[in-house]
Amino acid sequence: MPVTTKLLISVAMAAFMTACTAAMPPGTSISPSVSHGSPSPPVAPPAPASIALPWLPPQGVVVERNGGVVFVGLDGGVLAKIHGLRLANPTEAPGAILFRRRGGRWFVLDVAGSVLRPVERARADRLHEADGHAIHLPTPPGMMVNGEPAGHWRFALLAPDGNRVLAQWSGECEVPRAYVATLQSGPPVPITGATSDAPESFALGWTRGDRALVLLPEGSCGTGARQPGVYAFDAPGSASLITTVPSTGLARMWGSR
User: Fold this and answer.
1) What pTM was computed for the model?
2) Which residues contact 241 (CB under 8 A, 6 or more apart)?
3) Which of 15, 50, 93, 146 is such that its CA lies 20 to 30 A from the CA of 250?
4) 134, 137, 138, 142: CA torsion to nearest 10
5) Please, are residues 51 and 82 in contact by the beta-carbon 8 Å criterion?
6) Burial level of 66, CB count in 10 A (0-12/13-18/19+)?
């Protein structure tokens, strides 16, 4: 190629670059293009979906059974079974019912919507029910050691009739026992009616028919029930079985009064 032609091409290219640079606003930088081989930005995992349930009555119980949870009406009828979940707060005072799935997913029961809604761990922590304070009930008979209570009241629930209290006691070795007391007189009485060596029991709440719902487990540190299950008590020692639970199963009531 003649020298004159090369010189003309160089001059043209220089003029083209000068024009492009002048057209760009001050401070603009030229970034290298991204090759098709560059990795894509990470994609956040999808949020867990709600778990739909069939229609739920105003009151019922959730029990752990066969690697999942079972929703049971107060008539004992099974409403739904969800595998892979467990109760996350089964021994707390009545309130929100929390569930955990393998892998750390949290859910809360929405009774009005008949659905389990996913919740973040931080919100789940705020939904836990703390033990009550300043519960003005006498110490149960036989629960004093060296003049001091051998345990403490965890929570107390007033019956719809306004005359009785269902209360949860945590004794030595954290042995749980549910008691019922009237507001007029008399010390608290074990809900099972036993006068000595009462079996372990967890207070779940009151039904709208003034019956105390209580879980009688197999027992770990204390005496257990011959047939573990959720029972409805009309009076101490007078109960009917709502549903059975496995030896290590727990339960929680929704719609407690």
Assistant:
1) 0.79
2) 76, 227, 229, 230, 231
3) 50
4) -100
5) yes
6) exposed
Could you write out the three-class secondary structure of the chain? CCHHHHHHHHHHHHHHHHHHHHHCCCCCCCCCCCCCCCCCCCCCCCCCCCEECCCCCCCEEEEEECCEEEEEECCCCEEEEEECEEECCCCCCCCCCEEEECCCCEEEEECCCCEEEEECHHHHHHHCCCCCCCCCCCCCCCCEECCEECEEEEEEEECCCCCEEEEEEEEHHHCEEEEEEECCCCCCEECCCCCCCCCCCEEEEECCCCCEEEEECCCCCCCCCCCCEEEEEEECCEEEEEEECCCCCCEEEECCC
- Write out the two tokens for 62: 């959730």
Q: What is the pLDDT of residue 39?
A: 65
Q: Which two tokens stand for residue 64?
A: 């752990």
Walk along the chain (257 residues) in steps of 10 and give the mean pLDDT of each run. 43 43 44 51 66 97 96 98 96 95 92 97 94 84 87 94 93 88 85 84 96 89 82 96 92 93
Give the Cα separation of 178 and 188 in Å (integer): 9
- Find out whether 53 and 113 touch, Cβ atoms under 8 Å: no
Q: Which two tokens stand for residue 175?
A: 């042995």
Half-sphere exposure of 133 (CA within 13 A, CB side): 1
φ, ψ (nearest 5 deg) of residue 153:
-80, 135
